[in-house]
Amino acid sequence: MIELAPSILSADFAHLADHVKRATEGGATVVHVDIMDGHFVPNLTIGPPVVRSLRKATNLPLDCHLMIENPDDFIPAFVEAGANWISVHQEVCRHLDRTLHLIREHGALAGVVINPATPVEMLSEVLDLVDYVLVMSVNPGFGGQKFLPNSLHKMRRLAEIRTRRGLNFRIEVDGGVALDTVAEVVRAGAEILVAGNAVFGSGDPKTNAERLLKAAVEATLQRV
Ligand code: DX5
Ligand code: ZN
Predict the structure, then answer these.
(1) 133 lies in which domain range?
(2) Which of 91, 99, 101, 163 is the least crowded, having the fewest Cβ atoms under 10 Å away?
(3) Domain total for the chain?
(4) Is 103 in the pocket of ligand 1 (CB under 6 A)?
């Protein structure tokens, strides 16, 4: 099943509840929340207080993408604030197994993220521990960047490994997903589509979400 997870990074933070509501009316079923610390990535965003406010504004699951160093220090606070899904970057976790267990022990779905330069093989020992794998299709830090096509073979590879090993994780993609790229990510195996600029960049988030989902669902018919 294809799900659209609009990234609020490109929304108007002064009208966050309204923007999320419009995207939901357009078919979004997950809200993607980008947490940046100015160390792991060269940008700063939000922390648990905004997650807590969002929790009151929507019933959709909050998918918190942690682009922060020392994520273990903050996982309890994000869950307490209302995060339902938490993903951490393979590149910052010295004890990835421990961190993924920590997320699960707190009752959230656990995801692992890989940057464009990180091979899928780095995840081989944790694929049975995660609920989802997030493949970055831009270098993390900013919305509105150009899609990097090397992410496609990683999604295909993850889908192959999942079948071969009989695993259940879902495949999420993040970065540069828009009307001109959505079909290829879906054909490559992406099931949860993060989109910031394409939903909130300009125009009505409801119409934007509807168009993107329609293109995604059409592409599932062309999966090989
Ligand atoms: C980038 C973030 C993304 C970002 C995607 O570091 O993780 O979630 O908001 O934005 P778009 O869809 O505009 O590339
Ligand atoms: Zn993200």
Answers:
(1) 3-220
(2) 163
(3) 1
(4) no
